[in-house]
Amino acid sequence: MNSKIKEKPKVELILETAGEVFAEQGYNKATIRDICKRSGVNLAAINYYFGDKERLYLTVLKYYRELAIQKYPLTFGINETDTPEEKLSNFIHTFICRFLEEGKTALFGKLLAREFTESTGALDVLVEDFIRPTFIKLSSIIREIMGNKSPDKKVELCAMSIIGQCLYFRNARPVVFRLRHKEGYTDKDIKEITKHIINFSLKGLVNN
After folding, report:
1. Tell me, what's the pLDDT at 3?
2. Are residues 52 and 77 in the same domain?
3. What is the CATH number of the domain that holds 44?
4. ∠ at Cα 41 (3, 112), nearest 5°?
5. For the chain, how many structural domains are there in total?
6. DSSP code for 127
7. Average pLDDT of the residues in 187-201
8. Which pTM value belongs to this model?
9. How does residue 2 score in pLDDT terms, banded at 50, 70 and 90?
10. Residues 130, 187: one domain?
């Protein structure tokens, strides 16, 4: 009993450190040696708890996914009684915050962003467990706004367009910061970006 209580902080320390390293460097460039050095544990501890780099990475994704869901549930703050426009607004707000906010709970968005540009074997799992349900949720909202007679392909492309707008502000951060003469995203910036994407998307869907 006592040994388990002592083990938990070490496991969390490894997961938190590994999450930061994987998010900063990507899976391929990240090394177990660097993770050990930053977390202050030895290689034997990594091998004991996780086995190898791949299993550590998968555990890190699962760990941060759960943290992200605790703060931003998979419901996206949407109620069935909301109007379609309110549903889309809540969806975009939650999606943007997952990717642009800083802190421990935002690391899953950073890891996902890495997978979008430097995919690993974990991408298939992420698509089925997280990305596809999210995409289906967004598509259903778009269909409510555009009407049930809208072709599936058009709904699909509109969903991808909205997600693309959101991801741009994550994946193109160095460009955005230089263009806007900023060093990072403030809470005010995130609210401004969110409002713009919501308004832009709603107008595009109504006129599509």
Report:
1. 43
2. no
3. 1.10.10.60
4. 100
5. 2
6. I
7. 94
8. 0.81
9. very low
10. yes
